[in-house]
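Help wanted!
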Amino acid sequence: MKSVEKMRNIGISAHIDSGKTTLTERILFYCQKIHAIHEVKGKDGVGATMDFMELERERGITIASAATNVTWQDYSINIIDTPGHVDFTIEVERSLRVLDGAILVLCSVGGVQSQSITVDRQLKRYKVPRLAFINKCDRTGANPNRVKDQLIEKLGLNAVFVQIPLGLEDKLQGMVDLVGMKAIYFNGANGETMRIEEIPAELKAEAGKKREILLDAASMFSDELMEAMMEERVTEDLVIQAIRRGTIKRELVPVFVGSAHKNKGIQPLLDGVIRYLPDPSEVENYALDLEDNEKQVLLTSSSSKPLVALAFKLEEGQYGQLTYIRIYQGWLKKGDELYNPRLRRKLKVGRLIRMHASAMSDITEAGPGDIIALFGIECSSGDTFVKPGLNLSMSSMYVPQPVISLAIDPKDKKASDNMAKALNRFTKEDPTFRSYVDPESNQTIIQGMGELHLDVYVERMKREYKAEVVTGMPQVAYRETISLRADFNYTHRKQTGGSGQYGRVAGYIEPLLEGNYEFVNEIKGGAIPTEFIPSCDKGFQTAVAKGTLIGFPIVGVRVVINDGQSHPVDSSDMAFQFAALGAFRETYNKAKPIILEPIMKVTVEGPTEFQGNIFASINQRRGVIISSAEDGNASTVEAEVPLSEMFGYSTVLRSLTQGKAEFTMEFVKYGKVPASISETLIKEYEEKRRKESK
Amino acid sequence: MVKSELIKRSPLRIFEKALKDNLKKGDIAVLASRKGVGKTACLVHIATDKLMQDKHVIHVSFAPRVDHIIQWYEDIFKEIAKKRDLEGALDVHDEIIKNRVIMNFSQAGVTADQVLSSLEVMIKQGNFPADIIIFDGLDFNKVSREDLQKIKDFAKQINLEIWISASLKNPEPVFDSQGMPTELVPIFSAIDFLITLRFEGANVKLHLLKERDMVHKMDMNLILDPKTLLIVEEE
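Answered by r_m:
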């Protein structure tokens, strides 16, 4: 068990294909945890250790994040391998939540791409200090200077080289360390031996210049260094401390260079992690006090304080459910009793595990700042564990609403059982993935953040759970809303022998700009008895759950009741619920209901020569081009496009651009559906209802 | 206030009145000032006024990033909507941004030909029926008379008007005794309308210096609001 100062929790964030998995693999290798290096798409069929899911192996991408622990120079480093695709951002964000620092990996040729911008935005949101690693410096066209400039211009980071490459492309030999002013070369079959030498004469001038820039930037964070610079007595340690301070304040980003694939630059990067990224005690984390109106409570990395930990990742292992947790405060021992405030349930800690990518070691205790895994704990991702007696929750993570749904049908009985198991698992692992059975069609519906998101789960069902399913057409999650204020005055009356039902509600509905639903009671003088007010609210809530235009939930409605009537005998909870429901249905059409659809922010990147095709493809999809940016031959187009028009876009884009363009998308807002499409949707819905009623 | 009323009462009507002979398709209007006086805000205000009139605008910029330009549009729209208490501001906003595209060229030394060919692609293949193109931050030290003529020909061919901002970087004197920007003298004949923004006391004032073949210095009676940078009538 290391002291907290000797601990680092880091993530490796990157654009797809910038070599993140290879870099992780090399880090594991140098930390002597594994004995052979495999490529991501390995010919030996083994695949990189971090990315152990078969599906990921096949696609060459990393989908699920796994935590792994390594030791470097007496420091314990927990690495979270974060997924790179935007469709899985909840996984990225959940990982970022538990990190104290990150390595932002960039390709020396591709530079800052749309995904890097997304990932960087997430790092900013979760206030994660970062180092930048410009990878693939051995590739033809490598241009680390350009990438560093892009970090400054496109991401607005104060990026500054702490190394410069020794040679580039196929002549990459190593790097010059601008802090120690030495040249570093890598020897041995896997570059495991570092050779430190004097800087070659031809690079001395450039190294001197770049060091000056580095010192100028670093001295902003250390008066001591500034003084030392003036008196010309700068020491390596002063520079390191200044860079560290700037990095932890997130006002400086040290830039490293190298090539993971060619085994160049990994050890110095690991040194950088230790030197410049914060230990857990240097990062402020807050929990919410559930007994004090969710007031923020600052946690301290102290082992004597009561335990607060967050479950950030669940995995179905060979021996049951594995729960990855980050301990923020306090000490955790095998056999301890914990409390889960969400479930209001106590639990006992069985096995404590420290994870390597696909191997594990049992441990007996863990302290503040550490990331470990528990076996056999019933919980969901995002749950908090505390010492019994505390009622704290780590702030709830932002979970976006799903925007797309898909009907799935198991092929046979066995598949049906397996599907249920798989869905149960996936919905626990990923809060943006949901499933339910549609009571009308009796079909299982899965919901998520995009086509690819759902595709991956359908494939995982097949591979990991042997659940073959037939999928329907993807369905967009439309919403209904009102555009005008409309009054209601509705009486629900029923007399069928025995006690009857009576309730009258009056008031109005109006558009609500922020939020989905609001209920306002303006009744004075007890026109509706107080005990039936919640019944009215409930009735209106039932009404907005499903609109009558196309059967989707109604959002953006404020319901105000200001009058009504009750009957001493016939009024009841049910009667007022029905009255409210009737009132809403009656007045809904008067309020000019409209249909809303999810609008996605689509970013397409590709060579400028295909810009015309890209513009045209967005135009055909009812998209609005917000901007286009050209930088030499690379062009980035940003647009807002309705999700319903984006199905199959990846295939279309590939064929339009000879596979040279790529796109990412994320949900931005709900927008009005144009009248013509609205009519079609309404007709389709009416048709569907007619068929169902037959 | 409803949108149509807002358009009618915009100070830009005074602006147009000053340019008695309104801009025609194929015309080039230049807005010149030293750096940091408020050219971009001015251009964005002009563009927003056009957008309100359901015209299509392409905003060409040469910045490292586009988000701050989008922010300019958001800010200027917000200020106008607030000032005039625009009815249904959200809907108007959503409607007008559909008619605006920002095209950014961050490569150093991008040529006029490259820019014009991308504009043509946007207009034709992107099916964007532009009425006005705004060039924000064109470097007049690097733009030749021929380049300007190419832009003019393009505007005529596609049938649109052009607004350009010129950031005056030359050493003193930036303006000659007539108030003419010295830097623009070599390309003067290619400019149809020239407006300068200059501090006079605490205010930034707008002057019309060239109106087709007429060269004179005319006070437009407009200033930039120091708080919002909107073009407003001088009191």
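OP: Thanks! One thing I noticed: Confidence is low (pLDDT under 50) at residues 38-47, 51-65 of chain A.
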